[in-house]
Amino acid sequence: MRPIFLIGYMGSGKTTLGRELSRSMKLEFIDLDIFIENRFHTTVRNFFKSRGEAAFREIERSVLHETAEFQDVVIACGGGTPCYFDNMDFMKTKGVSVYLKVSKECIFQRLTIPTAKAKRPLIAGKTDGELMKFIEDALAKREPYYSRADIIFNAEQLDSEAEVNDSMQRLKEIIL
Question: Which residue, 44, 78, 126, 173, has fewest beta-carbon neighbours within 10 Å?
Answer without folding.
Answer: 173
